[in-house]
């Protein structure tokens, strides 16, 4: 909870969270006492852990920065022999307790392995594939690809994500084919995990009696479980299929009412579906208690349109990257004074900042190489908590999903407000992707990621689209968990397998009780496993357990999740 933060203290903390984790070199005598026989060539540190919003923290954990995969293996084998657990850390840009669980004490036998320090190798493996260390950031990866005329169809908005972290939770962007558009070779409308050709992971070798490195090709059965492993493994390197880069135009609009954009299907007008059909790449950001969402529409544009501004670098929305003074002041008052009733004022301020900022910075219509319009979120943006669900459905049902979800959200938000409760002070964000199709990588026998939320259901082949629904609010907001539980329960009962089905978004908040996320027994025990189809969850869990029978790669939450 952050109720007792001062206004300036909250913003200073937000800025500190954006920094690279502080690694304090270990005192050799202390290290020798607390980590006896630790591999001498692997650098040891004391380090704090903070997730994206600072809700999950741990101080003074032991961490190491291996210089290469062999040192990773040495650290893992030390951990196994001494009863420790290993948690890979990249940029810590996540919400859920997949890396560290809240309440982990500094003396816990937990070793952080910092991948971003040295596991950053990057080179072309072929004209249409790239070999990358899992500590490389998405911005560095995309820059490297761009320099060679290559790119991705879609990517998450933050460029500071490490590749390993993104793959572990099936990270995605927003893209489906526009009407008449054909997928380019080497590209996918699914998750980043769907681009993997091969990966190298640290796994248990029964014959050798130790952990070792092993490379898995995409057509191997075990690889399917490792493609989205949720932190139950440690991958050191991947080879990704990539394709020719494209130039994208991104047009932002703030003039379409939510009632029109999110209208019931068949209504006509400027609906979310109409933009999806026209361009295929759409995102809506709807600030709480406002009427006009910020709509971003990307379209493939080989040449610059006359009205578009050519952008040569990413992060072209400075009003979003740096908190505007009015928004900062309101956030400070809400947090430090407990003035949660100011949520409608904050929503309007955020909308105004976006609408005016787009004009002032000439960023309402931008064009350039794909990286420069796809990456738009810096670590300096406002840190905010978010829930996450993925709705698997058919392309023709997207508007129905969006309309039903936003109508329920609007009704419940108003109902809470009439009781003087304001559980949401951020926004609703909506994105749409395709499903993971292993044929996209062009490798015969390639397997789909078992635990990707974008995995196709074998019994519903017509479900070819995923609608991503997120509700964002400041951490510590009263009644937020109860509200998000209502939203989650609505999604589960409405998108229940009839015309659509709900899955959780791994890196976000889910399994809500009225008090906390990741606590609801029904979601943990039944909903999550059942959402992947008969036997899929069990198959993935079995592979991950066999490759790590000592559960070196895990924590209490993952133990609970996998049973």
Strand content: 15-25%
Q: What form results from the Cα inertia axes? A: globular
> Low-confidence segments, ≥5 residues, pLDDT <50?
1-20
Number of helices: 17
Backbone structural class: alpha+beta
Q: Kindly, what is the distance between the CA atoms of the first and last residues, rounded to a whole number of angstroms?
A: 29 Å
Mean pLDDT: 94
The residue fraction in helices comes out at: 25-40%
Q: What oligomeric state do these chains adopt?
A: single chain
The major beta sheet can be summarized as:
10 strands, mixed
CA radius of gyration is: 23 Å
User: What is the number of E strands?
Assistant: 22
Summed up:
With 563 residues, the chain is of the alpha+beta class. The protein has 17 helices and 22 strands. The relative contact order is 0.14.
Molecular structure report:
The protein has helices at residues 7-17, 28-34, 69-81, 138-147, 163-168, 221-226, 258-261, 272-279, 318-321, 325-337, 343-360, 370-374, 398-418, 480-494, 521-530, 536-547, 556-562, and strands at residues 23-25, 44-50, 57-64, 85-89, 110-114, 122-126, 129-133, 150-151, 196-205, 210-217, 235-241, 243-244, 247-253, 281-287, 294-300, 309-310, 365-369, 385-386, 389-393, 427-434, 465-473, 500-504. It has 563 residues and is an alpha+beta fold. Strands 13, 14, 15, 16, 17, 18, 19, 20, 21 and 22 form a ten-stranded mixed β-sheet that branches. A hairpin with a 6-residue loop joins strand 14 (281-287) and strand 15. The chain starts with 6 loop residues before the first helix and ends with a helix. Residues 1-20 have low confidence and may be disordered.
